[in-house]
Design a protein that fits this description.
The structure is a single chain. By secondary structure, the chain is an all-beta fold. It has a domain at 142-221 and 228-315: 5 Propeller (Tachylectin-2, Chain A), CATH 2.115.10.20. The chain has strands spanning 16-17, 25-26, 30-31, 39-47, 50-57, 64-71, 82-85, 91-98, 103-109, 117-123, 135-138, 144-151, 156-164, 167-175, 187-188, 197-199, 203-207, 210-219, 231-237, 243-250, 258-265, 270-276, 294-298, 303-307, 320-323, 327-334, 337-339, 344-346, 350-357, 362-369, 376-383, 388-395, 408-415. It has a five-stranded antiparallel sheet, with no helix packed on it. Strands 2, 3, 31, 32 and 33 form a five-stranded antiparallel sheet that branches. Strand 23 (294-298) and strand 24 (303-307) form a beta hairpin. The chain is globular.
């Protein structure tokens, strides 16, 4: 990947492909202020009439968590980034959710010099970090990693992957808006998961006072043993922390559900899930794409609709979903497009958003960032409930060494 200055311009750029042009438009690119080291893995949450964008600055033992606020029009509010946590060693993979008068930012943290733990910190609408060193949410032996977070109206649910008995399981804990961890022991979100199946990267959203945690299963079978069943697993968690597991979509035929997954909620009675499905055939030339790329569920975990994303086999990579008040959107990274007639790969590195109505009907897709001259990567998205959504992504240098010209975070507001 390479970096350069992306030209900002006034007005709105709309580009649609696939179905009829959707009634949506994308605003000018806003480049967030640089953090001390190259920026990676952004996330975004909306609340209090503002967006909070979080990211990791640096890699490995030099990674810290930074943030920046934008108003509901996408205007930058901070001239320099906010340091959320600068503890020793590595803090990375941040996620955020809005609750009662604050955001809760969560991340995986290896300050113990041994393995990952999960930490959290509250950030006010004014950009003040209330927990500068972070709150320990999950620690102990082995990895507690890849957290996500959502608010149900009363408390936050932080969900993470926990290494137990030679495989990753899903666990969680509720955190109050006051920053208190409400569960003395982790909630077993994947209790009952079939033998030799483990939890991939987790995503969590909330509707109707409960939460739904989703992941694509991974096989942890020992050599010579059959792998565990694949597909999408859902755990419905009530306000008291009780979880009920279901195998929502099974890997059969072309149902190629892989990690990472994404989940969004309309806040009332429905959820949308999408997943990575980038397998592109084997030696036989067989296409193992998806017959659909998203699915809707009710609050009980029952499948209510499936969505074909413009074509029977539309590939989805690094998906990030949100509900903007009028419908859902799935931002994803489109890169390394192969041209079989010419025998080469073209690095596109752009961000595209699929637009989906609240009932699951596909409405088209729109280009968010062309990737030229600055390659775009790793999108995240949050909706404001009024028909707007902020899409953020890594903005790589076009013609320079990222150690000299750092990777930045950029944002664009999508309106419909």
């Amino acid at each position: 990947m390479r970096i350069a200055r992306f030209s900002s311009y006034c007005g709105f750029l709309a580009f649609a492909c696939g179905a009829a042009a959707p009634a949506a438009e994308v605003g000018p690119e806003v480049v967030l202020p640089a953090s001390p080291r190259p920026a990676h893995t952004p996330a975004v949450a909306c609340g209090g009439g503002k967006y909070l964008v979080v990211w990791e600055s640096g890699r490995a033992e030099h990674a810290d968590i930074y943030a920046c606020r934008l108003d509901e029009t996408g205007r930058l509010l901070d001239s320099s980034p906010i340091l959320v946590c600068g503890a020793k060693e590595c803090q990375d993979r941040p996620r955020a959710a809005w609750g009662k008068d604050c955001w809760l930012v969560v991340w995986e943290d290896v300050r113990n010099d041994r393995d990952f733990d999960v930490y959290a910190a509250r950030v006010t609408p004014e950009g003040k970090v209330l927990d500068p060193d972070g709150i320990l949410v999950a620690g102990g032996g082995n990895n507690q990693c890849s957290p996500d977070v959502a608010f149900n109206g009363e408390s936050f649910l932080v969900a993470w992957r926990s290494w137990e008995n030679n495989k990753y399981m899903a666990a969680g804990a509720r955190v109050s808006p006051g920053g208190k961890v409400l569960d003395a022991r982790p909630l077993p979100l994947s209790a009952g998961l079939p033998q030799n199946s483990g939890a991939g990267e987790l995503k969590v959203a909330s509707a109707g006072g409960s939460w739904m945690v989703g992941w694509a299963s991974r096989s942890y079978a020992p050599p010579g043993a059959p792998g565990g069943p694949g597909g999408l697993f859902l755990s419905v968690v009530d306000g008291a922390g009780k979880a009920a597991l279901s195998h929502a979509i099974r890997n059969q035929g072309m149902d190629n559900v892989k990690s990472p997954v994404t989940v969004a909620s309309d806040g009332k009675g429905g959820y949308l899930f999408s997943w990575y499905n980038g397998t592109t055939g084997g030696r036989s030339g067989t296409d193992h794409g998806m017959p659909y790329g998203a699915a809707l569920f009710d609050t009980s975990g029952k499948l209510t609709a499936t969505t074909v994303l413009g074509a029977p086999k539309a590939y989805v990579r690094m998906p990030a979903a949100a509900f903007d008040g009028k419908g859902y959107l799935i931002a994803h990274w489109l890169g390394h497009r192969r041209d079989p007639n010419r025998g080469f790969q073209e690095d596109t590195n752009k961000i595209v958003a699929f637009l989906i109505a609240a009932d699951g009907k596909y409405e088209g897709q729109i280009e968010v960032s062309s990737g030229k001259p600055n390659p775009s990567y790793a999108p995240a998205v949050a909706g404001d409930g009024k028909g707007n959504a902020l899409i953020v992504y890594e903005r790589h240098p076009a013609d320079a060494d990222p150690l000299e010209t750092p990777i930045l975070i950029a944002a664009r507001l999508l309106r419909r």
